[in-house]
Specification:
Elements: H1 12-93
């Protein structure tokens, strides 16, 4: 033991073992990150595919919304026409 070593201080073997454990942990972490990257890439691919498959449905929904608005406008126009017709009939026939 050297004069600088405190009693109970780690030996070179202890430090080497700790360094090996740390290195193994870093390697495992790197592998986990790589696996996560693969999972993210697959998920991204699935989302892209879902977007392509759902695009026609979104367009259909937009057309449906436009038809609904057009129906509401047609209903309002028809209602206004009926009211005008009733008002015109009242003026022709009298109250």
């Amino acid at each position: 033991m050297s004069e600088y070593d405190a009693p109970g201080s780690p030996t070179d073997a202890d430090l080497t073992a700790a360094l090996r454990e740390f290195s193994a942990s870093v390697t495992a972490f790197t592998a986990a990150v790589a696996e996560l990257d693969r999972v993210v890439e697959r998920a991204d691919g699935l989302l892209t595919r879902a977007d392509r498959l759902l695009a026609p449905l979104a367009a259909t929904q937009q057309v449906g919304d436009q038809i609904k608005v057009a129906g509401q406008l047609a209903s309002q126009v028809a209602s206004a026409a009926v009211k005008r017709g009733v008002a015109a009939a009242k003026t022709v026939t009298g109250p």
